[in-house]
Design brief:
two-stranded parallel ribbon; alpha+beta; 4-stranded antiparallel beta sheet; 43% helix; 7 helices
Length: 179
């Protein structure tokens, strides 16, 4: 479920584990609602430029949810739209284009409703500055304040994960946690 971000802020001392449970519950409750009716599919695409993938996303109403490595992306959308995107991606040679198992719309605009639930959960918990360096794989920056941590966690719902860029944003050698 891509919840390592919450684990990282607990281990950094910014959130007590009891409060992390409140956040997790807000996300997982939404997943429970989605699961029986979920028609989201995901597609791993390797070997197509960002420009071409942006065009495919626009044409098929799908979203890039993960920037894994150069020309390595995960796309998410409805089952029908992902099938259209796969057909378009398959027309490029030699890409790798395979369905992967994930039925939740996290890290895309399809998950805006989860963000609303998390905003409500944040009213019930305490967040303090972390005791170590914590970096976001969403905004690719160090998170030093309560507001920065909260915003990063909220953005994990509807913003793509950018592993490709996140590691480049970390200048320190003493990092213990990445969120």
């Amino acid at each position: 479920f891509s919840l390592g971000e919450i684990t990282a802020i607990v281990l950094s001392g910014a959130v007590k584990w009891q409060h992390a449970i409140v956040l997790l519950k807000s996300i997982l409750d939404e997943f429970q609602i989605l699961e029986p009716n979920s028609n989201y599919r995901t597609l791993l695409v390797v070997g197509i430029t960002n420009k071409k993938l942006d065009e495919i996303c626009e044409q098929t109403n799908v979203s890039i949810s993960n920037y894994i490595f150069p020309k390595g992306r995960i796309m998410i959308g409805s089952e029908q739209n992902i099938a259209l995107a796969k057909k378009k991606c398959d027309s490029f040679k030699p890409p790798i284009c395979n369905y992967i198992s994930m039925t939740y719309p996290l890290h895309s605009y399809f998950a805006e409703h989860i963000k609303i639930k998390m905003e409500s959960a944040f009213k019930k918990i305490a967040i303090t500055p972390p005791n170590c360096h914590v970096y976001s794989n969403i905004c690719c920056a160090e998170l030093k304040t309560r507001d920065a941590l909260q915003n990063a966690l909220l953005n994990l719902c509807d913003s793509p994960v950018k592993w490709e860029y996140a590691f480049d944003s970390i200048p320190h050698r003493d990092i213990r946690f990445i969120a």
